[in-house]
Amino acid sequence: MPIRLTFPLRPEEARALPPYPGRAVHALFYQWLAIGDYSLSTQVHDQDGARPFTVSPICTVNGQRTLYLALLEDRLWPALSAGISVTPTIELMGRPLTLPPSGPQVEQCSYTDLAAGGRAETRIGVRFLSPTSFRSHEMHYPLPDPGLVYGARGGGAVRAAHGDGGPGGGAQGGRVRGDGAV
Q: What is the pLDDT of residue 178?
């Protein structure tokens, strides 16, 4: 059952954070997990493929900097909860942060309920505020997909803008090729 954890951060402390401390938050997740269950943290860290959690960038919600974590497997919550409960203050990128005394806000929803709330729309709008990638099988997959943006897989925005109709992507000569090279 997916679990979303929300940590509202103190404004005076959160102001000092850089805008995208993603890798530091990712490391913090593993530290919390290791405090609760070291063998589980090692297993999750070393597994191949998709991870059973997500770490969101620190974002601003209603004027407050907020940290979100999502757990996709129930087995992570007891260990993560144990780690969080013994760390009322954390250090993120050399800056101390005080966590809410009551802990994170916890929201749970079953996969069945998520699917029941789904809609039939097949298109969604996505706005990337920073470069984004997902790691799978020791490779990083960037989003937005360069092949779709630059036209290697047909219909790309750059190819359409330049009227470049070649089957394999963009042309040479100053235009962007399908692999992202110029």
A: 39
